[in-house]
Every structure is written in C-alpha cells, then in structure tokens.
Amino acid sequence: MSAMDRHEQAYTYCAFCPKLCRFSCPVSEATHTESLSTWGKMTAAHLVAEGKRELDDSTAKAVHACTGCGRCKSFCKHENMVGPALFAVREQTVKSGNQPKGAASTLATFTQAQNPFGPELAALVASWRSETPVRYPLFPGCSSLVKAPQLIEDTIVVSKAFGAPMGVSRVSSRCCGYPLYAAGAHDAFRDHARANAAALESVPELAVLDPGCAFTFKVVYPEFGVHLKTNVRTVVEVLEENLSHAPQKPELPETVGYHDACHLGRGLGQYDQPRKLLSRAVFAVHEAASIRSEGGCAGGGGLLPRTMPEVAVEVARRQAQEVAPEPDIKVVTACPTSKRMFERAGKKSYDLMALLRRWVES
Questions:
Q1: Residue 153, class by beta-carbon neighbours within 10 Å (0-12 exposed, 13-18 middle, 19+ buried)?
Q2: At a CB cut-off of 8 Å and minimum separation 6, what does 131 contact?
Q3: Is residue 74 within 8 Å of residue 291, measured between CB atoms?
Q4: Closest by alpha carbon to 167, among 204, 142, 136, 144?
Q5: Backbone angles phi, psi at 345, to 5 degrees
Q6: Per DSSP, which regions of the chain are E strands?
Q7: DSSP per-residue letters across 68-112
Q8: CA distance 242 to 318
C-alpha cells in the first residue's frame, strides 16, 4: 500500500465536498485561487490517485501549496487530515522529480548537511555547553540554533528563573526531520526518525523549544512506526508547570496579541499553557476573532516559505493583522518560525521566551 492509498478516503471526501471549509485555508485566502483551496488541492490529489490526472508540474505546485496547519480540520465534519494527505502526494513528486524548486533545494541541503539550513549543528550545540547543573535537557531545534540563538539564551534565563534550569542537549545536533516529512521524502524521514530514536535512548526527558519539532517527535514519528522512549515535552508546558516558582514581579505595562502557533495549538493541544504564562507577564492579552483550534496560520509550515515565498509572507501579514490590529499591539508567539514570518511581513513580533525574560529581569 502506498502513502497515497492510506489517504484515499480523505481525498474522496474532500473532492465531493461543496467547499464548506473554503474560508479556512490560509493559502487560498491569501491567493484567492480556487485551485489552491482545500477542495482544489484535494480534488487534484483524488484525480491523481484515481489515475484520471497526471501528476504534472501544475499539480505538483498545487499539492505544495499547503502549510499543514490543520485549520481546515477544525471546520471539517469528517476531520480530514489534509496536510498529511497532501504530503503523501509530495512523495510521488520526489520520485518523479517534478518538485517545486524550493522543495528540491531543501532536500538537497538536508541530504548534504542533515538539516535544512546547511551549517554543522554539532558545532553550534557545543557552544551552548552548560557550566552548571540543569534539570531539563533542552532541544532548541535547528531553526533556533541557526536563525535565533538569542531565543535559546532567553529560554535558559527564563527556565532558571522558574526553578527549572535547562541546558542545550548534545542530541540537539540532529534535526528532528520535519523538512523531510513536509517535502515528501518519507523513506528518508523514516530512516532519520529511527536514527534519532536510537540517539535519544539515553535521554529520559527532553524539553523542546520549537513546537514543530515537538509535534514531529510526538505525533509524526508514531505515524511512521517510530516510538520514542524519551518523554518529550514542550518548553511552554514545563514552564507553565513551574509557574508557581516564578518570580513575584509586577506585570509589564503592555498589551500583546497572542498567536496560536499551529503545531503547538492544533498539533499538541497546548492553548492554555502559553496564555497562563502571558497573563502573569503582561497587563493584557488581545485575542483575535479566530483563536485556539480555529486560529489562523503564520505561513511558515509545510515548506511554503521555500516553495511559495510571497504567498507565505501574505499569509503571515493577514494573520498578524488579525492578531494585532492596532499599531501599539505587538504579536507574541511561541513558535520561532512564526516570529520570523511575522517580521518578514513587516509586523514587529516577540517570541514568548523573550517577553518572559524581560518580565523576570524587570
């Protein structure tokens, strides 16, 4: 049975649906293109699965026009898993060699460097060697290691202030493998996940900073038959559990808009934990019209910034406007990729850890 065969029912249900979730797809809303709606993409996949349509360049582009955010599932009576179903079609584009250029280049970089960015992660991890005992081994994710090292420092400072000191674990030199999964390189992803599971055997517990990595470990790995012995938890949930040990500080006199990161919220169900942390740190939290399971997407998942960069930025711009409609409201997110996307869209944003650090040091 192929990967696409496992999603046959989802393709069929979406193809014969009267587009009831049309409004929920961030890509189709940003492009105003029917072929890139959930219905359009899944209908294309259905026709390919039925042998009624060739997986040509146009179809390959369509099935890559998905962040995997899962928002459509929140409005679907059948709870169709559209992201995984479209990622399965991407596997066929890998084999046929007609991936969009951005996806192909990501796979090429990963094959060479074992991460999507290129730099050697082991050297970056070594620079974070802790000089004091830590309670939780920290897995920042390669995005933070390469693109946002300040976020790692913020996390370490905040965790110490909360009585739950963290230090970067040496296993962080291995990417979780999400880019392989999103690109459709599923055989390579399975092998990578198994190698990571072996490397993690000696690590009983891991605090993961990037929600995308935590989601990959906890949700995607088991879907590929890889089950970690390590107790994987997000940094957000560890800090929330230790909130009673946090410093007794006055709230920062700020109003922020909170963005429910897709993998943290819909992926892992962690909606309350970041809000509890924020409510201690700031005067007020502005909630968008659509939040929690119905919350919008920042455009950073599913390789969209690499395959359709302008669309990804427009997705982020629209979400930032909903989360923080006033100029004096800053966007706060617990996802480093979302933060980068908001800033690419021209909206000042903060990572939750950076805001918490300002609070504990105030």
A1: middle
A2: none
A3: no
A4: 136
A5: -85, 5
A6: 136-139, 166-168, 205-208, 231-234, 252-259, 282-286, 330-333, 349-351
A7: ---HHHHT-TT---HHHHHHHHHHHHHHHT---HHHHHHHHHHHH
A8: 34
DSSP designation for 22: G
Tokens (6 digits) for 166: 């963290």
C-beta separation of 221 from 198 below 8 A: no
Q: pLDDT value at position 214?
A: 98
Task: Please work out, in degrees rounded to the nearest 5, the angle formed at the alpha carbon of residue 215 by the alpha carbons of 310 and 126.
Answer: 90
Contacts of 313 (CB under 8 A, 6+ apart): 299, 305, 341, 344, 345
Q: Which two tokens stand for residue 107?
A: 């796979």
Residues 6+ apart with CB under 8 A from 143: 117, 210, 212, 336, 337
Mean pLDDT rounded to a whole number for the chain: 96
How many alpha carbons fall within 13 Å on the CB side of residue 76? Answer: 21
Render pLDDT for 120-138 as a digit per residue (tens, 0 to 9). 999 999 999 887 789 999 9
Q: How many angstroms separate the CA atoms of 110 and 129, rounded?
A: 25
What is the distance between the alpha carbons of residues 55 and 53, in angstroms, rounded to a whole number? 7
pLDDT tens, position by position, 273-309? 999 999 999 999 999 999 999 999 999 999 999 999 9
For residues 304 and 315, is the Cβ–Cβ distance under 8 A?
yes
Half-sphere exposure of 294 (CA within 13 A, CB side): 10
How far is 70 from 324, CA to CA, in rounded Å?
22
pLDDT reading at 196 higher than 90: yes
DSSP code string of 170-222: GGGGS---HHHHHHT-HHHHHHHHHHHHHHTTT-SEEEESSHHHHHIIIIIHH
pLDDT of residue 1: 60
Angle at 298 (CA atoms; ends 292, 299), nearest 5 degrees: 130
Please report which helix (H) or strand (E) contains residue 123, including its range.
Answer: helix 121-126
| Predicted pLDDT at 133 | 82
**Euclidean distance between CA atoms 271 and 252, whole angstroms:** 21
Q: Which of 314, 315, 275, 316 is nearest to 292 (CA)?
A: 275
